[in-house]
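Q: Convert this sequence to structure tokens.
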Amino acid sequence: MSELAELIAGWAKPGRVDWIGVRPARRTEIVTLGDAMISADGLGGDRSRAGKRAVTLIQQEHLAAIGSYLGQGPIAPDVLRRNLVVSGINLAALKSREVQVGEAVLRVAVICAPCSRMEEALGKGGYSAVRGHGGWCAKVVRCGRVRVGDTVQPID
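A:
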């Protein structure tokens, strides 16, 4: 393996699941959970899609960044409507990798771009504030339960 490939494959420490939410239907309130079952179709109770967008993740650290761009404190996770908020690990560095999240294994697939609703949810500039910080979509590789407090780490 080349030196660059080794650097890219490295990671400092495991992350952690800080928050879990499901979207039962379009434009309905998000439901915060302490745990959820991840199946091939995504989180139980979520209106998610199968495939590379089955589960959405965002870094806790980015909630503060988004808020700072809007001149306020960290954004509440339910506002962005992602499924999992994780901390302590860089999701962008995990692109195309398999990641153990609780009992489940996900493959971090594509960036989760903001939608026009961010202006509605966050006010003027909301869309731009989320750009580059909106999280990642993942495909389910192995089903399993995820709980708040579970470890998030790449599978070597």
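The two ends are 13 Å apart (CA to CA).
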